């Protein structure tokens, strides 16, 4: 598997999200915990355990959730971020104010379970092509409000992030091509207006479109929903014309098809599946 170093988003950005999610859950107050405990008085110890096999992601974010409620909470990770764990493995130990532990439990667990599920499925895709030159890439098909974390989770699983938003790069898709009146017109118009050093990627569905994208010097060409034979031919055409052009494959990417796609020689394979099709990895927290 190609090594990926996940970039944890800055808490300068994340804190606003985490506070909003805590406010959503707490509302006007944690009625149960506040009725049982005096704030910041009773301390306790809790353990997080994984209840099914999978890749762990989101522990630093879970730590931050508890520490936003009480900065003195100690959150000790027992496994590494991105580590594959067997069911029953203890993954974290938390010590501190019991009211903070109980109030933050659900938000922290929800985030870690969601991100661990994404990382787990991502790793399966990455491992399918680990011995081939192609890299696995995520997409912008993310949950509104969670993109920054969901894309972090795909990195934990071993994927490379595609653009985070519309301002990262130019991607001319089928509807843009129709609106512009063709690939050539779209590239010509956009290249006159975008700042340096943004790249231009063009989505193509036929060999004719591939040749047009090459003619107008697209830096990245996406082969969208092409059959393997056509994809191989497209890769050959691109390589012969300009070996510096990067090639991305997209569409109909599954665990069953990804290796065949990689064997065509593309540089990148993009799929939304790890985010849109993953299930949460079951984690639990028990107070000792």
Automatic annotation (TrEMBL):
GO BP, one annotated term: NAD+ biosynthetic process
Matching Pfam families: QRPTase_C, QRPTase_N
Catalytic activity entry: nicotinate beta-D-ribonucleotide + CO2 + diphosphate = quinolinate + 5-phospho-alpha-D-ribose 1-diphosphate + 2 H(+)
Record pathway: Cofactor biosynthesis; NAD(+) biosynthesis; nicotinate D-ribonucleotide from quinolinate: step 1/1
Gene3D superfamilies on file: Aldolase class I, Quinolinate phosphoribosyl transferase, N-terminal domain
Signal peptide range in chain numbering: none
Protein residues bound to substrate: 106, 139-141, 163, 173, 203, 224, 250-252, 271-273
GO CC terms, sorted: cytoplasm
Superkingdom to which the source organism belongs: Bacteria
Record domain Quinolinate phosphoribosyl transferase C-terminal: where: 118-286
Quinolinate phosphoribosyl transferase N-terminal domain sequence ranges: 30-116
The entry's keywords: Glycosyltransferase, Pyridine nucleotide biosynthesis, Transferase
Keyword Glycosyltransferase among UniProt keywords: yes
Coiled coil: none
Record-listed E.C. numbers: 2.4.2.19
EC main group: transferase
Gene Ontology MF terms: nicotinate-nucleotide diphosphorylase (carboxylating) activity
Role according to the record: Involved in the catabolism of quinolinic acid (QA).
NCBIfam families, sorted: nadC
Similarity field: Belongs to the NadC/ModD family.
Subunit structure of this chain's protein: Hexamer formed by 3 homodimers.
Protein name: Probable nicotinate-nucleotide pyrophosphorylase [carboxylating]
């Amino acid at each position: 598997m190609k090594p990926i170093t996940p970039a944890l988003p800055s808490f300068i950005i994340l804190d606003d999200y985490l506070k909003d999610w805590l406010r959503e859950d707490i509302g006007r107050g944690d009625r149960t915990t506040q009725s049982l405990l005096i704030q910041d008085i009773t301390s306790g110890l809790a353990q997080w355990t994984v209840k099914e096999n999978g890749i762990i992601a989101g522990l630093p974010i879970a730590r931050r959730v508890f520490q936003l409620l009480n900065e003195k909470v100690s959150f000790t990770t027992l496994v590494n971020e991105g580590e594959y764990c067997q069911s029953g493995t203890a993954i974290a130990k938390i010590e501190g104010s019991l009211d903070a532990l109980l109030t933050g439990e659900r938000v922290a667990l929800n985030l870690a379970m969601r991100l661990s599920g994404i990382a787990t499925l991502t790793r399966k895709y990455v491992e399918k092509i680990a011995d081939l030159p192609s890299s696995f890439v995520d997409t912008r098909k993310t949950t509104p409000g969670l993109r920054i974390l969901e894309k972090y989770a795909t990195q934990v699983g071993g994927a490379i992030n595609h653009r985070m938003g519309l301002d990262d790069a130019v991607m001319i898709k089928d509807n843009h091509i129709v609106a512009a009146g063709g690939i050539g017109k779209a590239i010509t118009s956009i290249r006159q207006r975008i700042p340096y050093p943004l790249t231009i990627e063009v989505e193509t569905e036929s060999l004719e479109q591939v040749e047009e994208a090459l003619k107008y010097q697209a830096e990245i060409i996406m082969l969208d929903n092409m059959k393997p034979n056509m994809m191989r031919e497209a890769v050959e055409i691109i390589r012969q014309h300009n070996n510096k052009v990067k090639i991305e494959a997209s569409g109909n990417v599954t665990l069953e098809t990804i290796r065949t796609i990689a064997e065509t020689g593309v540089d990148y394979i993009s799929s939304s599946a790890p985010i849109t099709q993953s299930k949460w990895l079951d984690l639990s927290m028990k107070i000792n």
